[in-house]
């Protein structure tokens, strides 16, 4: 049971300052930390010498009791730490923008576009106190209508809507985690179910041609090949430091925090993957330097052309390539799930649909003698 108690502390000029003692400590969104004491910047006189000081003490005591009771109700009914009306009425879009800035090291373009689409939907600012499941569902339907807000006003696909809505739900999760809203809308509002698509990936021959082909950026080439040999997402390749690379020849591994899930991972990697890293730098130095997502598209157009690979290959395609080649070479689905850092086997089974060797083998079991047709 949470309890808010009035405490006093002696200060100068024969006075006592008044503060609230919260037990257990509660989250303070101003500081981002748990806090037990809340100073009210109010005081009382120890020995009031006149009617004005006596009135001051009485009114201050009444005010403090009102604040204490309000805090107690807020904690019990709303679970809002030190949340004031100012915070409850603050801009959700500003929280969205702050979240986007925090994610600028990963796929910042997608986060920025997700923010733009929410602003286009909202029309005007949305307060934190205005967030509810109805508004979230309206935004979901807005995205599914395929609006185009770019200069060319090109409609977005369903899977792009899936992506943008997932970013929006991540912000909902963040503001609830910080105690800024009292309902976990992330759990209440379901994600958009993605449309099944054929994921472009590389055959081993194409992968080899890319490794052999010249490119306009050695950094981007090595980063992409590294993803193909390890299965790492762009955000994890981008954040990789030399301190994450451990082990000895034949037994190298990565020890890192996965950006998407925030889970601690240990991933065995090949000697070839370590070769792509090159000469070891300082422990906190980024392995692949200043790698930017926004520069990848023009790089891939040129590199793929030089390697005679005519597929819609993105950086994430190298993760798909890693997964499907692992299955082709006999890695079981459970091991692959661990290598990819998936929380659920269901996520990994998508790759099993791409490479189902049993289907391929079955296709050749019925054999006819067609010489009579010649």
From TrEMBL:
Example GO biological process: DNA integration
InterPro entries membership: DNA_brk_join_enz, Integrase-like_cat_sf, Integrase_catalytic, Integrase_recombinase_N, SAM-like_dom, Tyrosine_recombinase_XerCD
SUPFAM superfamilies: DNA breaking-rejoining enzymes
Family matches, as PROSITE patterns: TYR_RECOMBINASE (PS51898)
Transmembrane regions listed in the UniProt entry: none
GO terms, molecular function: DNA binding
Presence of keyword DNA-binding: yes
Domain Tyr recombinase: 197-364
Signal sequence bounds: none
A Pfam family hit: Phage_int_SAM_5
Keywords: DNA recombination, DNA-binding
Matches recorded under PANTHER family: PHAGE INTEGRASE-RELATED (PTHR30349), PROPHAGE INTEGRASE INTD-RELATED (PTHR30349:SF64)
Family: Belongs to the 'phage' integrase family.
Protein name (Swiss-Prot/TrEMBL): Contig147, whole genome shotgun sequence
């Amino acid at each position: 049971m949470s309890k808010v108690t009035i405490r006093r502390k002696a200060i100068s000029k024969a006075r006592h300052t008044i503060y609230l003692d919260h037990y257990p400590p509660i989250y303070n969104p101003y500081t981002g930390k748990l806090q037990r004491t809340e100073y009210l910047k109010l005081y009382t006189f120890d020995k009031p010498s006149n009617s004005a000081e006596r009135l001051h003490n009485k009114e201050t005591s009444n005010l403090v009791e009102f604040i204490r009771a309000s805090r107690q109700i807020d904690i019990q009914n709303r679970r809002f730490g030190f949340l004031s009306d100012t915070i409850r009425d603050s801009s959700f879009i500003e929280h969205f923008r702050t979240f986007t800035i925090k994610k600028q090291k990963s796929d910042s373009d997608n986060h920025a576009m997700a923010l733009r689409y929410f602003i286009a939907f909202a029309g005007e600012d949305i307060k934190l106190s205005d967030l509810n499941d109805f508004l979230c569902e309206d935004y979901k339907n807005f995205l599914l209508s395929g609006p185009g807000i770019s200069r060319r006003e090109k409609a977005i696909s369903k899977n792009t809507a899936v992506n943008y809505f997932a970013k929006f739900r991540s912000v909902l999760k963040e503001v609830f985690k910080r105690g800024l809203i009292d309902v976990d809308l992330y759990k209440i509002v379901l994600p958009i179910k993605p449309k099944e698509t054929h994921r472009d990936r590389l055959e081993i021959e194409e992968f080899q041609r890319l490794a052999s082909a010249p490119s306009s950026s050695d950094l981007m080439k090595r980063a992409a090949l590294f993803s193909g040999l390890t299965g790492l997402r762009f955000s994890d390749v981008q954040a990789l430091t030399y301190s994450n690379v451990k082990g000895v020849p034949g037994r190298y591994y990565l020890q890192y925090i996965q950006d998407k899930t925030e889970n601690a991972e240990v991933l065995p990697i090949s000697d070839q993957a370590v070769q792509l890293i090159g000469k070891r730098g300082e422990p906190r130095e980024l392995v692949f330097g200043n790698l930017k997502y926004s520069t990848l598209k023009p790089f891939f157009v040129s590199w793929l052309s030089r390697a005679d690979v005519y597929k819609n290959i993105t950086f994430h395609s190298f993760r798909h390539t890693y997964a499907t080649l692992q299955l082709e070479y006999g890695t079981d689905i459970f091991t692959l799930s661990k290598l990819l850092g998936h929380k659920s086997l269901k996520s990994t089974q998508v790759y099993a649909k791409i490479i189902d060797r049993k289907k391929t083998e079955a296709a050749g079991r019925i054999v006819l003698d067609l010489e009579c047709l010649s």
